[in-house]
Design a protein that fits this description.
By secondary structure, this protein is mainly beta. Helix content is 3%, strand content 51%. It has three helices and 25 strands. It has helices at residues 2-8, 17-21, 25-29; strands spanning 58-69, 104-113, 117-126, 142-143, 154-164, 167-191, 205-232, 243-250, 253-269, 279-296, 299-308, 312-321, 332-336, 339-340, 358-360, 363-373, 377-378, 385-397, 401-404, 410-411, 415-427, 436-448, 451-453, 472-474, 477-488. The strands form four sheets. The protein has a 14-stranded antiparallel beta barrel. A two-stranded parallel ribbon has the order 4-20. The longest helix is centred in the first third of the chain and has 7 residues, at 2-8. Mean pLDDT is 82; it is low at 1-15 and 198-202.
Length: 489
Amino acid sequence: MLMTLLFGLIGTSVAGPVDVYGFGAKSIGRGQGGISVADGGMTVFRNPALLQDLEWAEAVIGYGLYRSDFPEGPNVYWDTNRDGLLNSSDDPLRVKSQSSSSDSVTLSMSRNVGSKVGLGINAFLPTSQFLRLHTTEPALPTWVMYGSRNQRFEIAVGLGAEVFRGISVGVSAELIAQARYRINATLDVAAGTANEEDPAGEDLIDYVTVDIHEMTLDLVPRFIPVVGLHWDAGVLAPTLNGLYLGAAWRGSSGVPVDASIDLQLNGSVFHDMEELEPMYVTLLMPVELSIFDHYVPERLSLGASYEHKEWAMAYVDLHHSRWSEMQVNVAHVTESEIRSQLIGVEENLLDDANDYDAVFVDTWSVHGGFEIFLPQIDVQGEAGSIQPVIRAGMGLIPSPLQSQGSGTAFLDADRMLFSTGMGVSHQDPFDLVPGPVSWDMFFTAHRLASGELKPTASGNIRPGAPVDGAAFPIGGKLWSSGVQLAVSF
């Protein structure tokens, strides 16, 4: 019954923004982590076992700004005039390096059930787009770890419970949508012949008709599990009071898209000549495409924290991400065929032009930070005393992109983040809720290591090659800032 209720509350989700920017003002402000730090109901994405620590029902709303700034690269060779040839008549292509902003509203609802169980739901809602599916051309420079990965809605529901004294376990789930897209269309082309009015045959195409018979988009749910563990070491001995350990495992996730395109091309010639019978040619081209967007790897997280006399806390997290199974958002032809009743066509004539050669490896990333609770400030009125807190932290996230072939231009680099935050908590002066009210804000800056990707075949005029053999610059930065309000009741 409990699991039925749990999964019934889940909505559409894909992982991504939470991994890049974190979730919750407290966690982001102290370095975007805290696998063993219990700070209310905003732990469902991080470690659901921490939900057992809830003492109140809690509602949280926040707003964040998320921006990126990547260096502009050189112009590249491309068939910009779309004549099927790559030559001097094509203007160089300027590839946009900046990704769209992913400002968002964050929501959390949680509550305790007795003294040993907690339930929570966390949601990340982008304000500019609900979900973006975007495929990448491997030959063009692409920031493979960013882009549309941050343009999506996320939600997860979790449960945490203390099963033994000092030991808690938790489970949560994210729901992503597997997309299936089908299109059935017919293209009719009629060609005539040269005549007295058009001796050069410049207007051979008499008409072109496009008939879209059917388009279908199905969203099929897929569940991504998260399992967490939390241990209060202080139950073993008084000397360990304040030491907490945590671990969490999450399965890989993403949005797979299976596209089925059934195109029929009908052509007719000599249809305008009375002395000749029209000739009809039909080509049937069913194509199956496979796309995988918003990939987030399987991850194992380990964390430890220490709280000293309820006035200071420090933590460190380690994350092992299985990037070796990376699936880039490149469309692949998985099955294709050309059939014709009149023209003989060899099997497997259609080739996939989006093949790429890139190696991704598993990585270990580290996050650390602290919180310091300043002395309480007594104020007049119903608010009682105000408890201020300051936070800071940092993290190092290595790039999983190890190597790539000459036909790709994937860009990425090691990333380091620095964060800071502050907050205050007080009693509700209007007596609307019995528990504390908290206001928190954060700011993070992410810096990518500088470098460059040099073309392996300098001087060649090929699609995607930089003009004049220039290198693609690597580097840039991300930053985020936001505020959050939490009320306990």
